[in-house]
Design a protein that fits this description.
By secondary structure, the protein is mainly α. The chain has one domain: Vanadium-containing Chloroperoxidase, domain 2 (Orthogonal Bundle), CATH 1.10.606.10.
Length: 576
């Protein structure tokens, strides 16, 4: 029996009521159901009105060139219908700062302002911020040229927030939860997690079960922030070393911390890439004194530089992962995963039937996919969906939220701990032992950074390294059999020099390891100290919604009458 999505209200009831994402599950389900009613079973030919003079005739033309005007009209009608369908989707609230942080804090202590002039407390000069706000609202290049900068650092592409796209839906139609408010317990819990991640950067993931610092982090977050922390926990509400710093998405808790796709060899044309990477030396952190951080917030370029291990390693620590996501290009790891799944390494990894069973060519005896529903198609859509999701992310970053980065929040914490200023930070933050341990190690209350330059010059929420991976992961699950098992899992030795068999016993699937890959890339920026947990978790879901919109348009444009069927990050069965 063909499975169809439940009614949006029914599907919303199946979602966890205590999560901030539960409300937005309704919107995702509504989008899917809306388009299914119009597009499931509809071919390119069916998209043309039945009374159209351009309806394809049963007998082919003797002269293909003579049919060209007919094809052009059909192409136009397909594009027009896709645009009309997208226009009917719900639109989120008007593009204003929906979390109201700017109105609540006129001195903009909760808003992103890196690169602008700042006072000695690290608080932005208000005229500079107002000039930035004016430029963002107007969307005019000349207004941005009037924004005063505090140093050499330039703002990263705020005009992209105003860009439109020619496929999928518009950025204003993609739902995303509001980020945790500056003064909330949730914000405090996310800050505590980042401080623990900084202290645990050099712990090998394989050694988490015997690490003292990991045990302390799990106990602190699990007991002290049980009601405000939205990471995974066990039935008793506590957090184990096997759950710490992970996501709740399907498959993310199974097996090693890192996805198998970050360790498997990548077939790359006429060569093979072994995934050993340049990694930073252990114990080297940055922006741990107040003067360096003030210089950084004012947009001055870094003086320090990362020192690297001379030997390439398999990724095995939070610092390794942070440096990987420091240098990877936009969809690098998902390109690698697609090449692994579609490439020549089946014999080595014993992958069987990697294509989705719903691929229109899965049962064909005479055809196989290539440009459509084959390797070329999945590689193309990974790039397209990632690009759309990232544009949507920039709209959300600059036009909606402009949330401050963790490094700036750490400066607020330091100012308060040293009695330089008082901020409305939730009291629960100051009861965590992580602050004292940070001060004992670094002599500061600042959040230690893995990068000399700290965060890039664009707002925190959502993470670009989350919206893009959320979209790319969705494309992979739509094209490949997400239930297929990866039969010989591995994990690196603690020194990252070799891969050892993983003997944990969990069944690792393509879908679960793709989800884990997306969360690894997003959470790697948390290990760097530059993104909040919610930047990542909500960004992944926003990217997923963007990819669904891209798949919807491609379904309408292909004559194979395809069906995309896969599982969302949160376990919903998606059918397009």
């Amino acid at each position: 029996m063909e499975e169809i999505p439940p009614h949006p209200e029914d599907e919303a009831q199946a979602l966890p009521a205590h999560t901030r994402r539960s409300f937005f599950g309704k919107a995702t389900a509504a989008i899917i159901a809306f388009h299914n009613r119009r597009l499931i079973g509809q071919t390119a030919e069916d998209s043309v009105p039945t009374n159209s003079p351009h309806k394809t005739q049963s007998a082919p033309s003797a002269n293909p060139a003579a049919a060209m005007p007919d094809r052009l009209e059909r192409a136009f009608l397909i594009r027009k219908q896709a645009a009309e369908t997208s226009r009917r989707l719900p639109v989120r609230k008007p593009p204003v700062l929906e979390n109201d942080e700017e109105r609540r804090y006129p001195n903009r202590i909760a808003s992103f302002s890196k690169g602008l002039p700042h006072n000695d407390l690290g608080e932005v000069h208000l005229p500079a911020y107002l000039a930035l706000s004016k430029a963002i609202s107007s969307g005019k290049s000349e207004d941005f040229e009037s924004v005063p900068l505090g140093g050499e650092l330039m703002l990263v592409n705020p005009l992209a927030a105003h860009a439109f796209t020619l496929e999928g839906c518009d950025a204003c139609q993609i739902e995303i939860a509001e980020p945790p408010p500056f003064a909330s317990a949730e914000m405090a819990a996310e800050a505590v997690e980042l401080y623990w991640q900084a202290l645990a950067r050099d712990e090998a993931f394989a050694d988490y079960s015997k690490s003292e610092i990991i045990a302390q982090a799990a106990e602190d977050i699990g007991s002290r922030y049980r009601d405000s922390y939205h990471g995974p926990n066990d039935a008793a509400g506590t957090i184990t070393p096997a759950q710490i710093f992970r996501d709740t998405s399907v498959g993310s808790l199974a097996g090693p911390y890192l996805s198998q796709f970050l360790w498997m060899d990548v077939p790359y044309g006429a060569t093979t890439i072994t995934q050993r990477y340049k990694v930073a030396v252990a114990g080297e952190d940055f922006l741990i004194d107040r003067e360096s951080l003030l210089r950084n917030q004012r947009g001055r370029l870094p003086i320090d530089a990362i020192h690297f291990d001379p030997e390439p390693r398999y990724l095995r620590t939070g610092r390794d992962l942070a440096e990987y996501v420091h240098r990877c290009f936009l969809y690098q790891e998902f390109l690698n995963a697609a090449l692994i799944l579609a490439g020549a390494n089946y014999a080595r990894y014993e992958l069987r039937a990697p294509l989705s069973p719903f691929n229109p060519y899965a049962d064909s005896l005479t055809q196989k996919g290539f440009i459509t529903f084959g390797t070329a198609h999945v590689l193309e859509l990974i790039a397209r969906a990632t690009a759309l999701a990232t544009r949507i992310g920039w709209y959300q970053k600059w036009l909606l939220f402009r949330k401050l980065r963790p490094e700036a929040f750490g400066l607020r914490v330091h100012n308060q701990m040293t009695a330089l200023a008082k901020y409305p930070i939730h009291d629960s933050l100051f009861s965590s032992p992580v602050l004292l341990q940070t001060h004992q190690k670094y002599g500061t209350w600042l959040l230690p950074q893995a990068y000399p330059e700290g965060c890039p010059a664009h707002p925190a929420y959502p993470a670009g390294h989350a919206v893009g991976p959320g979209a790319a992961a969705t494309i992979l699950k739509a094209f490949f059999d997400e239930t297929a098992e990866l039969p010989k899992p591995v994990q690196p030795s603690s020194d990252g020099r070799k891969l050892n068999p993983y003997t944990g016993g969990e069944r690792l699937t393509v879908g679960g390891e793709v989800n884990k890959l997306a969360t690894n890339i997003a959470f790697g920026r948390g290990f760097a100290g530059i993104h909040w947990r919610s930047d990542s978790t909500e960004g992944l879901r926003s990217g997923e919604r963007a990819a669904i919109a891209v798949l919807r348009d491609w379904k309408a444009a292909c004559v194979e009458n395809p069906k995309f069927r896969f599982t969302s990050f949160d376990g919903q069965k998606i059918v397009i």
